[in-house]
């Protein structure tokens, strides 16, 4: 790593913020549950990127460790989320979240 | 410790029946209930010798309340043993009689449990060595009377009569309780023996002392329990209970409690209060005797006669003639039990006919009942050799110094003889009417009837002839003129009653019309109804409505608030995941902005 011209940390942070905003936007505007899951995944990885960049900036491993945890949690989240989506699809024949309003008060 | 067994045996019987009675039959239940009382009678009988040696027996079961003197302890002194023997003896006979009288059905468990508890409670009133324990028995007596009067609880009249008895008694009980508080606060003890000593110091003539007030309050309690003016209204209605219950309440266990109280506390209560008890008793005796003449219901005649006779006991007890009061109490218990059990036999035989004007001519068809009721009626009419004659004589002697009281006693005697003869003539001697089939009296009813009638016949003579001591010094003998007057009044009243009614009530003409005026009890009941029951009912209903309305408004208002609030929150719960997501993000942005700008 030494010697090579490094990207400044700010660039990583800007990219992470951009990806996070993109994911949040996707979660709000898309009605397809699968697309929403992908958007959530995008947000999580934006956060991962930010953590790893910060870890490099400060020369510590904490950020990297947390990134691993986030990856593990994301895998679990996708597992549960996809199971729910499959069940919704079986019951309703659609994965449109605007159709799933049974709990409306 | 035989003394402790006396109240504990019926109590154990009551508890056993209450716990196990559902699984054993009616006959077994009745047998156990009667047996428990009989055993208590036997325990009392076994103490006759020891009482002759020690005039005062005590048994301490343990400490009870943190009030000086309020222990679980019993004492037997003076008149106690005679009372205990009478209560247990008569109650045992009534229990035996009930086995045959009660209709088959699930009520036997309730009936006999309450009967045994009733006896235990009355024994507690007689034996308790302090006022608090006595009050416990006193309250239990009230409770059991409520349970037994309302035994046929599906009949509204019985339920109402039971409530009335309970509520009227409550008036007296409240006064009694306050009286105990005053005694405890003033004398620092509730033990009756200690109170006797304390009253010497705390009572002063012509001064209102706490003891005087407490005495007056205890008298109110006694008046209510013994159905004396002005708290007598519950007793005639109590006839709604089964007839053996009436016999129990009237003869052995309940109405005599007030007299027992006066006898036991004669050295504690203020003399003014005791004299007031005499006056109240005399007024009640006269009043109730007048009302009794006009009653058309067989059992109501007997009810009013009880009120009248207990009034005579109050006269004697209030005048300090303890022996006379106790003598009449015991004699009355026997002849009144005879009359009630006889009345029960008549009612049983005629399928529930209680109207005197519809009964008649039963003398030939129920000879045994007629003979026993004759003994009871002789006692009520105070005609020798029945016991009532001797005991009423003792009361008249006690009242010799008080012309007004003596007059009331003598007029009551005349009236008693008249209505006793009226009752007997109308039921047994008057021309027979068309009667439905007459049922035979079962042995379990006939045997107690004969036994108690024998006691009623023999008791007075035995005491009168000094064979039976009652454990109390007796007052002076009657002068000859009083004896003669009593016999003339008794015989005259009875003959008058017989002559008037021997052709039946419809042939009695003017007498019956005048008597019917008195039958309403001179409007006391109506007065209470109008002055107390109805206004209170109106107030209660008004309060009920007000509370109901206020409740409704409060509850409705609160509910409305919740509904409106819920409506506001409801809009947020739109069920749209994307909407939640947007809110979440907005919130996060606001928080971030807030933190970074701070």
Question: Would you kindly provide a written description of the structure presented here, covering whatever features stand out?
Answer:
The complex is a heterodimer of chains A (105) and B (598). Helix content of chain A is 74%, strand content 0%. With 105 residues, chain A is an all-alpha fold. The termini of chain A are far apart. The mean pLDDT of chain A is 87. Chain B is an all-alpha fold and 598 residues long. Helices cover 73% and strands 3% of the residues of chain B. Chain B has helices at 2-20, 26-45, 48-53, 80-101, 108-127, 131-149, 156-187, 192-202, 210-225, 234-237, 243-253, 257-264, 271-293, 298-318, 322-349, 367-381, 387-398, 403-429, 443-464, 480-501, 510-518, 524-570, 577-597, and strands at residues 56-63, 71-77. A two-stranded antiparallel sheet of chain B has the order 1-2. The longest helix of chain B is centred in the last third of the chain and has 47 residues, at 524-570. The model of chain B has no long low-confidence stretch (mean pLDDT 79).
- Ends of chain A: how far apart? 56 Å
| Binned strand content of chain A | under 5%
In helices, the fraction of residues of chain B equals: over 70%
Largest protein interface, residues of each chain: A-B, 14 and 12 residues
Uncertain regions of chain A: pLDDT < 50 for 5+ in a row? none
Specify the helix fraction band of chain A: over 70%
Task: Offer a concise description of the structure.
With 105 residues, chain A is mainly alpha-helical.
Secondary structure: elements and pairs:
The complex is a heterodimer of chains A (105) and B (598).
Chain A: H1 9-29, H2 33-58, H3 62-92
Helix pairs in contact in A: 1-2, 2-3
Chain B: H1 2-20, H2 26-45, H3 48-53, E1 56-63, E2 71-77, H4 80-101, H5 108-127, H6 131-149, H7 156-187, H8 192-202, H9 210-225, H10 234-237, H11 243-253, H12 257-264, H13 271-293, H14 298-318, H15 322-349, H16 367-381, H17 387-398, H18 403-429, H19 443-464, H20 480-501, H21 510-518, H22 524-570, H23 577-597
Antiparallel strand pairs in B: 1-2
Helix pairs in contact in B: 1-2, 1-5, 2-4, 2-5, 4-5, 4-11, 4-15, 4-19, 5-6, 6-7, 6-11, 7-9, 9-12, 9-13, 11-15, 12-14, 13-14, 13-18, 14-15, 14-17, 14-18, 15-16, 15-17, 15-19, 16-18, 16-19, 17-18, 17-19, 17-20, 18-20
């Amino acid at each position: 790593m030494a010697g090579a011209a490094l990207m400044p940390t700010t660039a990583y942070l800007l990219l992470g913020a951009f990806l996070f905003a993109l994911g949040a936007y996707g979660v709000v505007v898309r009605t397809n549950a699968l697309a929403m899951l992908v958007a959530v995944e995008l947000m999580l990885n934006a956060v991962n990127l930010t953590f790893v960049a910060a870890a490099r900036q400060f020369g510590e491993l904490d950020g990297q460790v947390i990134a691993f945890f986030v990856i593990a949690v994301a895998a679990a989240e996708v597992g549960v989320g996809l199971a729910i989506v499959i069940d919704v699809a079986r019951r309703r024949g659609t994965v449109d979240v605007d159709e799933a309003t049974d709990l409306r008060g | 410790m035989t003394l402790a067994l006396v109240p504990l045996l019926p109590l154990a019987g009551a508890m056993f029946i209450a716990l196990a009675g559902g699984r054993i039959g009616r006959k077994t239940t009745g047998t156990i209930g009667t047996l428990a009382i009989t055993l208590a009678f036997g325990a009392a009988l076994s103490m006759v010798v020891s009482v002759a040696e020690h005039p005062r027996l005590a048994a301490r079961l343990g400490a009870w309340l943190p009030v000086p003197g309020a222990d679980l302890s019993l004492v037997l002194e003076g008149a106690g043993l005679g009372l205990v023997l009478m209560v247990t003896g008569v109650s045992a006979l009534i229990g035996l009689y009930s086995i045959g009288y009660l209709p088959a059905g699930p009520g036997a468990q309730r009936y006999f449990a309450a009967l045994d508890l009733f006896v235990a409670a009355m024994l507690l009133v007689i034996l308790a060595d302090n006022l608090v324990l006595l009050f416990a028995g006193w309250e239990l007596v009230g409770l059991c009377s409520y349970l037994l009067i309302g035994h046929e609880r599906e009949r509204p009249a019985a339920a109402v009569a039971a409530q009335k008895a309970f509520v009227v008694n409550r008036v007296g009980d409240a006064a009694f309780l306050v009286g105990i508080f005053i005694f405890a606060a003033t004398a620092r003890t509730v033990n009756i023996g200690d109170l006797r000593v304390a009253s010497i110091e705390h009572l002063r003539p012509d001064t209102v002392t706490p003891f005087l007030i407490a005495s007056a309050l205890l008298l109110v309690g006694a008046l209510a329990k013994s159905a004396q003016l002005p708290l007598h209204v519950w007793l005639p209605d109590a006839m709604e209970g089964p007839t053996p219950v009436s016999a129990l309440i009237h003869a052995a266990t309940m109405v005599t409690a007030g007299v027992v109280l006066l006898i036991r506390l004669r050295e504690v209560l203020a003399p003014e209060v005791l004299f007031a008890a005499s006056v109240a008793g005399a007024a009640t005796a006269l009043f109730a005797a007048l009302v009794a003449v006009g009653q058309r219901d067989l059992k109501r005649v007997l009810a009013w006669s009880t009120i009248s006779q207990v009034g005579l006991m109050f006269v004697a007890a209030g005048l300090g003639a303890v022996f006379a009061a106790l003598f009449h109490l015991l004699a009355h218990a026997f002849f009144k039990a005879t009359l009630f059990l006889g009345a029960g036999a008549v009612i049983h035989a005629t399928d529930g006919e209680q109207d005197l004007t519809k009964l008649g001519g039963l003398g030939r068809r129920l000879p045994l009942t007629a003979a026993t009721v004759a003994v009871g009626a002789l006692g009520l009419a105070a005609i020798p050799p029945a016991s009532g004659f001797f005991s009423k004589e003792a009361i008249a002697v006690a009242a010799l110094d008080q012309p007004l009281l003596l007059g009331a006693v003598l007029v009551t005697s005349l009236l008693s003889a008249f209505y006793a003869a009226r009752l007997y003539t109308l039921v047994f001697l008057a021309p027979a009417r068309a009667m439905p089939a007459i049922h035979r009296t079962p042995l379990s009813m006939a045997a107690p009837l004969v036994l108690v009638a024998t006691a009623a016949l023999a008791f007075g003579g035995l005491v009168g002839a000094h064979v039976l001591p009652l454990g109390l010094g007796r007052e002076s003998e009657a002068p000859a003129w009083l004896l003669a007057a009593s016999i003339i009044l008794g015989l005259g009243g009875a003959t008058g009653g017989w002559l008037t009614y021997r052709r039946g009530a419809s042939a009695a003409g003017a007498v019956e019309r005048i008597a019917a005026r008195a039958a309403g009890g001179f409007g006391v009941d109506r007065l209470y109804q109008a002055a107390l029951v109805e206004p209170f009912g109106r107030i209660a209903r008004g309060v009920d409505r007000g509370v109901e309305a206020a409740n409704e408004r409060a509850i409705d208002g609160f509910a409305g608030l919740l509904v409106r609030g819920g409506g506001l929150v409801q809009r947020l719960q739109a069920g749209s995941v994307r909407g939640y997501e947007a809110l979440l993000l907005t919130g996060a942005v606001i928080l971030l902005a807030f933190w970074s700008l701070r």
